[in-house]
Amino acid sequence: MRLHLAYRWFCRLDLNDTVPHHSTFSENRLNRFRESDILRHIFERVVMEAMAMGLVKGDGFAVDASVIEANASRYHGKAPEEIDWTEKQRQKRSVAEYLAALEAEAATDSDAANDGAGGAPESKRHRRYERQPPKVISPSDPQSAWTAKANKRVQFGYGLNYLIDIENAVIVDVEATPARTYDEVAATQTMLDRTEECFGLKPKRLAADTAYGTGKFLGWLVKEKRIIPHIPVWEKSDRQDGIFSRSDFHWDRKRGAYICPNGKLLRTSGTVHDGRTLLYRASKRDCDVCSIRAKCCTTADARKIPRDLHEDARDVARQKMQTKAFARSRDERKRVEMRFAHLKTHHGFERMRLRGLSGARDEFHLAAIVQNLKTMALRILGPPPVRPRASFA
């Protein structure tokens, strides 16, 4: 290494300066940089430079996630209750972070159980509904998620979440999560809040795929952030067996009730089920004498229609799906997918080198820094010239 000129140039060393040991970089990365957020600061500085160059418009953002395979064997997964962590395993950074996260989650559950009388069971049911505990974890990297999202192969992986400015595909925020849809959608809220706080950027519209079209996320986006959702609504109520779907029932906003195809009302008692749904029920007396009961109730005594607490925000998203702006955002959303394709194809980043969520965070920040720097370099220097092909005529 003493004779390696590129190494000296990178370290800003003169020809007569003493060269540090080659492990200095890895030791600093593992013991100093991991807890200092230095890569986060570098990433934010690069984004600020891109904003100064006029590459970030802030009008429209797009968000998506891609699975990166964890540095863990997919053949050695175990159920969490089957693992008895040894003292040697507990000393590993990835395992220590996982156990610390479990303790923090247990403390949060304990605090929630102590808030108010009778609130604990409903709160616990709500969490189980939204996010199931993992059935299989990796003993070497327990914070990674057991997933089959990437190339249809079951593996342990992390979710690389990108929030980009649509104009020039500049990455304005990046977040590492386990490769679970619930965590990826939650990370979008974190990235939008952090981008507004750090750079003062708040988009007018957000483009994403159907995985982000849940009622809870759309309600937060429309009601709290006042951002137009160019997101397909996640629909699970359409039926293909000839029975009336929820879309066949008309919502009467003034009366706060559904009207069935035969003109009868479906009302709700106001009870919230699973922390997010109201059930609207028809009268059994009306359903018993209904002429189209065979297409509606089947074996039930009376028809029930579930309605999300954020159904009004879902209706806003449905209206936007019919506009030309939505069709344009749907095409522009592919730019964030191209970011993932370039990262895996041109840079060969398909598998993690570091373990633990903090290791994934470091690698993802480095990847985003490199891609933004390439975008800035292409804007300054322009694309490489096309060489004329030699003629052998």
Textual characterization of the structure:
- The chain has 393 residues and is of the alpha+beta class.
- The chain has three domains: 31 residues, no CATH class; 231 residues, no CATH class; 63 residues, no CATH class.
- The protein has 13 helices and eleven strands.
- The strands form two sheets. Strands 1, 2, 3, 4, 5 and 6 form a six-stranded mixed beta sheet that branches.
- Strand 8 and strand 9 form a beta hairpin.
- Helix 3 packs parallel to helix 13, helix 5 crosses helix 13 and helix 8 crosses helix 10.
The separation of the N and C termini measures 50 Å
Question: Taking all residues together, what is the mean pLDDT?
Answer: 86
In which range does the helix fraction lie? 40-55%
**Major sheet size, sense and barrel closure:** 6 strands, mixed
Query: Structural class of the helix and strand makeup?
Result: alpha+beta
Radius of gyration: 26 Å
Number of strands: 11
* Strand portion: 15-25%
Helical run tally: 13
How many discrete structural domains? 3
H/E series:
HHHEHHHEEEHEHEEEEEHEHHHH
Flag low-confidence runs: 117-129
User: How does the overall form come out from the CA principal axes?
Assistant: globular
Main features:
393 residues, alpha+beta, 13 helices, 5-stranded antiparallel β-sheet, globular, 40% helix
Write a compact overview of the structure shown.
The chain is an alpha+beta fold.
Q: Secondary-structure blueprint of this entry?
A:
Blueprint: H1 5-11, H2 24-31, H3 38-52, E1 60-69, H4 87-90, H5 93-113, H6 119-130, E2 145-147, E3 155-165, E4 170-178, H7 181-199, E5 205-207, H8 215-224, E6 228-230, E7 250-252, E8 257-259, E9 265-273, E10 277-282, H9 284-288, E11 304-308, H10 311-320, H11 324-332, H12 334-345, H13 356-381
Parallel strand pairs: 1-5, 5-6
Antiparallel strand pairs: 1-3, 2-3, 3-4, 7-8, 8-9, 9-10, 10-11
